[in-house]
Amino acid sequence: MRSITGILLGRLMRNIMRSPDTIITVAITPIMMMLLFVYVFGGAIEAGTDNYVNYLLPGILLMAIASGVAYTSVRLFTDVKSGLMARFITMPIKRSSVLWAHVLTSLASNALTILIVILVALLMGFRSNADILDWLSVAGILGLFTLALTWLAVIPGLTAGSMEGATAYSYPLVFLPFISSAFVPTETMPKVVRVFAENQPVTSIVNAIRALLYDGSVGNDIWMALAWCMGIMLVAYFFASKQFKRHLG
């Protein structure tokens, strides 16, 4: 017998597959940005690497995830406003299954997006000497980052008064990589901008992924990346759970 979470997860995944605008926005947008930066701006950007797509890819993956989790807010907002959420929580099921279905849907759909972006990057010349353990570490970091932002997305999904309000929080997350080491080394930035860039989560996560993919020497970046992901996830989970309990009455 399938679990309630599995049934709800299947419902959400079917909705995603039937929605081409979701696929276009989440998969095509980061690919277009990667093409733009590599083939239009790449020749003018000094990143200290012969192959700019190698330098750029980790940041593009984070932007894809930040864009993708916005749809978690949209799906939750739709369930709340349509009354479907209220109906679910009155049924004799484990109520946390409702939220976990949305979270796992985000994890699955973003994994698909990441795979598509990496395949396109390979066609553009991306190459890595990472071994299987390095790739598993990269997958783990990206998974934690997805969970952290997804639980953050749950909050506006439950509280927003409009569709625009449910997705507005994602805009700063999508553009945060621009003020990090995702596109250029932080050493090239003005001092004030550099201080911010070097002490925000995206830089640590990007640096850790980049090190795992290309030289295998991550140093403290991987611990900083994990700390940021876990910290954001725990705080977001706390407030998301608190808000969900309010919906339970």
TrEMBL record:
InterPro entries the record matches: ABC2_TM, ABC2_TM_bact-type, ABC_2_transport, Nod_factor_ABC_transporter
Signal sequence interval, chain numbering: none
PANTHER family: NODULATION PROTEIN J (PTHR43229:SF2)
Topology in membrane: Multi-pass membrane protein
Main localization category: membrane
Domain ABC transmembrane type-2: 21-247
Lineage: Bacteria, Bacillati, Bacillota, Bacilli, Bacillales
Pfam family, one: ABC2_membrane
Subcellular localization: Cell membrane; Membrane
Keyword terms of this UniProt record: Cell membrane, Membrane, Transmembrane, Transmembrane helix, Transport
Record-stated family: Belongs to the ABC-2 integral membrane protein family.
Membrane-crossing residue ranges in chain numbering: 21-41, 53-77, 98-126, 132-154, 166-184, 222-240
Protein name: Transport permease protein
One GO CC term on file: ATP-binding cassette (ABC) transporter complex
Molecular function via GO: ABC-type transporter activity
UniProt keyword Transmembrane, yes or no: yes
Native species: Fictibacillus phosphorivorans
Superkingdom as given in the UniProt entry: Bacteria
